[in-house]
Amino acid sequence: MHRDDMTPLERLGASRRSFLALAGAGAGAGVLAACAGGGGGSGDEGDDGGSVSGEGEVSDQNPLGVDEAAPVSAVIFDGGYGTEYAESAGEKYMELHPEAAVEVTATVNIQQDLQPQFAGGTPPDVFDNSGAQKLPIDGLIPQVADLSDLLAAPMVDAEGTVEENLLAGATTPGMFNGAFLGMNYVYTVFALWYSATEFEEKGWSVPETWEDLMALGETVKGEGRYLFSYGGQNASNYYQEMALSMAAKLGGPEVLTAIDNLEEGAFEQEAVVQAYDALEAAVEAGYFEPGGEGIKHTDAQTNWVNGSSVFYPSGSWIENEQADVTPEGYAMTGAPVPSLAGSAMPHEAFHGTAAEQFFVPSGGENPAGGAEFLRIMLSKEMAANFVELTKAPSVIRDTVPEDGFGSTALASANAMIQAAGENVFTYNFSDWYGLGADSITNWTSFLKGDTDAAALRAAEQAMIDGVREDDSITTFEAGP
C-alpha cells in the first residue's frame, strides 16, 4: 500500500517499524525488542536509559556532574521558533563550561537526519523532536534517558529546582508510564482568540458562558457575519480542542484522562456529550462560516482577522502565524473557552500544555552534557530570551513581562496563566497515537453539517477503540 493510501494508524505503524528497524541495527536492538510491544510502554518496567547525571565533579555550578571538557551536540528543529534561542543556550553553556565545545545543528527533517545516527550508535546528546518529520515516540522511549535528575537540579540563575520553576502541567507531556523522558520547552495556551479593538469599539463583553456566546452569535449573524471560521482541509479539529476543553471544565480533568486511557465509552461521558451538543447547536444556528471544508487553516484565519468571523480557537502560536495578514491595530487577544452551565472548574481554567519536546539519548556520547544544555535553556535568562525572540511563552514561570514585549496575544496568554493558577488541563491521545488526520475528517464533516454530534462522538470513540485493540501499538497510561 502506498503511504498516501494508508489510514493514520497504518502510517503510524509503518513509521514506527521503519524507526525500530533502523534503530535495531545499533547497540540498543535488544532493549527495543523488549519494549516495543503493545499495551505497556517503557516507564513501568524501568527500561529507559537511566540517570543523566555524569561522573564529573558535582558542585553548585555543576549539579549534574558533567565532564567540563566534553563536547556537546544539539540538534534543533528549525521551525516557527527558529534556532537562535538554542544557539544562545550553546554560547551560555561554553561560558559556564569554558573547556567544552557546543555544536548546535538546525534541521527540518528530524527523522531523516537522526534515524541513521541512532542506527549507528551516534545520536546527538540532546535533540528537539518536533515538526512533521519527528521520530515516533514508541520507538524513542527505550533509547532516551530519564530526566528526573534535570527536574531536581537547581536553577542556573534562580532559587529552587528546575521543576519548582515550571508552569503548571509543563511536565505532563513528557511523562511516559511514570518515567519523565521528554522535556518540553514552549508553553502553549489554548484560547478563544478575538480582536480586543473590535470588542471595545462595539461595547461587547467576551462571553464567559455558552449561553452568552450563543447570544452574541445572534448579534453577529445580524451583521451578516459569523462567530467562527474553520479550515477543513487540515485543522477543523481545532474545534475538537475547544469541545474537549469545555468538557474538561464541565466535568473536571478526569474526563480527558478517560480519553487518553482509551476507555470504552470515553466519548459518551456526560460532559463530552454536552460539549459536543453545544457545538452542534452552533452549527445548526449558522454560526460557522460556510465553505470551510475546502480551505486550509491559514485561509480560515485570514478570513477571521479580516472580519468574516469574530472568534477562532487555537494555540498561542496564532499571532506569529497570522502576523503578515493581521490588520494593524487588531489587538489579537485570547480568553478561556466559554463554560457550560454547572461547570466543575472555574471559568479561568484552560487547556495549557508544553510543546517542542527535547530528549537526551541514553546512547549519546555525553548525556550529562545534553541535560546540562537543557538546564541552561531552562534558566530565567535563556527562557526570557526565547520569549522575546518568539513572542511565545516558555515553560519557566515569570519570564513574560506584563506588556508581552509589545504583543497583545502574548500578554493575554500570560494573563490567562496567572489567572488560572493550577486550574490547567491537557490531553495527549491525539499526539500519542497519530490520530490528527482522522479527527480532521470527522470534524470537517461535522462543521459542514453532514454529521451530527452523536455520529461524531461515535467516530471519535472508534478511533481510540482501534488503538486500544491493536496489539502492535504501544499504549501509554495517563495520570490522574
Outline the structure in words.
The protein is α/β, with parallel strands linked by helices and 480 residues long. The protein has 2 domains: 215 residues, Periplasmic binding protein-like II (D-Maltodextrin-Binding Protein, domain 2, 3-Layer(aba) Sandwich), CATH 3.40.190.10; 204 residues, 3-Layer(aba) Sandwich (D-Maltodextrin-Binding Protein, domain 2). The protein has 19 helices and 12 strands. Strands 1, 2, 3, 6, 11 and 12 form a 6-stranded mixed beta sheet that branches. Strands 8-9-7-10 form a 4-stranded mixed beta sheet. Strands 4-5 form a two-stranded antiparallel ribbon. The longest helix has 17 residues. 52% of the residues are buried.
Short description:
40% of the residues lie in helices and 12% in strands. With 480 residues, the protein is α/β, with parallel strands linked by helices. The protein folds into two domains: 9-184 and 360-398, D-Maltodextrin-Binding Protein, domain 2 (3-Layer(aba) Sandwich), CATH 3.40.190; 189-352 and 429-468, Periplasmic binding protein-like II (D-Maltodextrin-Binding Protein, domain 2, 3-Layer(aba) Sandwich), CATH 3.40.190.10.
